[in-house]
Structures are given as structure tokens and as C-alpha cells.
Amino acid sequence: MKAITQNSIGNAETMYIGEVDIPVLRENEVMVQVKAFGVNRADILQRKGKYPSPAGASPLMGLEVAGIVAEAPVSSPWKIGDKVFGLIPGGGYASYVAIDAEMLWRMPDTMSFEEAAAIPEAFLTAFLALQWQGKLQRGQKVLLHAASGGVGTAAIQLANAMQAEIVVTASASKHAICAKLGATVCIDYKTESWVDVVQEVMGKNSIDVVVDFLGASYFNDNISVLAMDGRMVMLALMGGADVSGVDLRKIIGKRITVIGSTLRNRPLSFQRKLAREFAEQFLPSFSDGRLQPIIDTVMDWTLIKEAHERMESNQHVGKIVMKVSE
Q1: CB distance 133 to 155 below 8 Å
Q2: How far apart are the first and last CA of the chain?
Q3: Where would you tag: which of 84, 94, 176, 252 has the fewest CB atoms within 10 A of its CB?
């Protein structure tokens, strides 16, 4: 089959479409012909050799796909021809992928493959951070950093559905989409002190949950705005990994919980439960328009180099999706 692979670890130039072996189905798996897949920062890290696939997973990049069931065991709930989408630990940058049957969702009739491929990683990551780990409740205040990306735009919508008050940081050009999705306060981190704005508008020590992608550069400020019993969920380290000058008295005094989060290397049983609970609570909302994947760009997979470069330069708003051509 065709797949995007690399001639070496490195920059976007290392990727090319080549021939690889088609996956062999394991117990409880079905084969999906991939029609579209989403691009994620995890793919960029894997390309650079900084985020390898979990043991037993495909070494290929790609964590979310949409497509058509091409092969399934007789006992499977899925049948050949079913249109599906779902999360995988790797292998999505290919024309075929083997997926655990319980990690698949049925595509709504009104949804395109490109729209479906933009949902799994972003929305499951946001759901995990907000509900399972952040324990966000109705009426609470949540601060979302890097809010205009795929996970950020998903998190705004989910927090809005949970009836939270939403504060986001993003560049000014991206405020309109954040506000449209439900953000209460939008802060331009390039020209404003987001800490000052949060404290002025929402109050001091007011934020119940922070979802953070920056890491070190925002760590102390996140601690300063969190409320008593506040939770900070850390999803990435775009601003560095080494924190200095932390006042532990604030963490202890406010009983703050700091949570590091990943999804890809979680046990399959955990991911199945997460996918099932998300589907029960929120999947119908994609059919009636209450939730929507925000797509920045749809590109043919032959342009994967350009897609990675667009994400690395932070030009995108929402998801970058690749269409798999024959």
C-alpha cells in the first residue's frame, strides 16, 4: 500500500509517499481504507524523532483517520463499506490502517471524510483534559492557552457545552473564531499581559481549570491565576520544559493540582472507555450542528511537507486535514 514515510529523521523534507506492507489485522481490529487524516503536533515530534510510536503500534505517523471499512471479521459490529472515523496510536498516514473496532465511530450522513478526520484527536484530547482530568463543572472558569489550534477550538466548544466561562489566549487575528465558538474573553498574548487581563476581568485567583500547551514559559503565571483547588492540565511544552523560580507555597496554599497528560500511550482499555463516553455525551452534537470540527485547510496528501510547515509556523486556525488520493 501507499504511505507517507521518511528517508531519515528530520525536517519536513524527509517525508515522501512510498510503498509499505499493508497492516495485518489483530484480534478485534478492522481494516479501514483511509480517505482523510488529520495532522497533529505529535506527528511533527515523531518526524523529528522526539515522540516514537508506542510499543506494538505502527511506526508510521498519523493519529486520526476517516474512511471506509475494507475488511472486518464476521463477528465484528462493523461491515465492509461502513463509513467510519476514529483514533489510532499510529499508522494514519497511509492508504489502509488497522483499527481497534471499539475505537471507531460511525460517520453521520451529513459529514465529509475531511470533517470526520478532524475530530478524534482534537476532541478526545480536549474531552480528557476538561472533563476527566480538569473535572470542569458548570459555571466554573476555564483558561485555554493556544486556543486557536485543533485541540483549542475543540476545547472551547466542549467547555461551552459544559456551560463554563471561557477565557482564551490567542493572537488577535484568531479572536473572532474563538469568540464565535463560545469564548467569553479573548486575550492577545502578543500585546497584552494575559495575567493582568484575567485578574481584571475574571478576578484574582479565579480560574478553576487551565489547559496549557506552553509549559515552562506560562507555568508560574498559570499558578498565579488559579483558584483554590484549581487544576492545571499540561498537554505540551511549546514554551520549554524547565521551570525556574516556582513558589511552591502557592501550589500548596491553593491546593493546586498539576496534571501532565498524554493520550497516545494510554492503555487501550482507557482509550476505549474515553471514546465510548465521548460518543455517548457528544457525538450526536456533530449531527445537529452544536459541535463542529474547525478546519483550517484541506490538502492532498502529496502536500504533506507543506502541511507540516504550516503547522510548525503556527499559521493555522483549527485542523489541517489531508485528503488521500489514489
Answers
A1: no
A2: 10
A3: 252
Q: What phi and psi, each to the nearest 5 degrees, are found at residue 71?
A: -155, 135
The pLDDT of residue 326 is 78
Please tell me whether residue 316 adopts helix, strand or coil conformation: coil
- The Cα angle at residue 54 between residues 71 and 70, in degrees rounded to 5: 10
Bridge partners (DSSP) of residue 234 are 212, 260
Using DSSP's 3-state secondary structure scheme, residue 300 falls into strand
CB 275 within 8 A of CB 267: no
Question: What is the rounded CA–CA span in Å between residue 33 and residue 71?
Answer: 9
Domains delineated in the chain: 2-119+266-323 (3.90.180.10), 122-260 (3.40.50.720)
Question: Running DSSP on this structure, what letter comes out for residue 103?
Answer: G
Residue 290: partners with Cβ closer than 8 Å, 6 or more residues away: 161
Which residues, listed in sequence order, are joined to residue 246 by a DSSP beta bridge? none
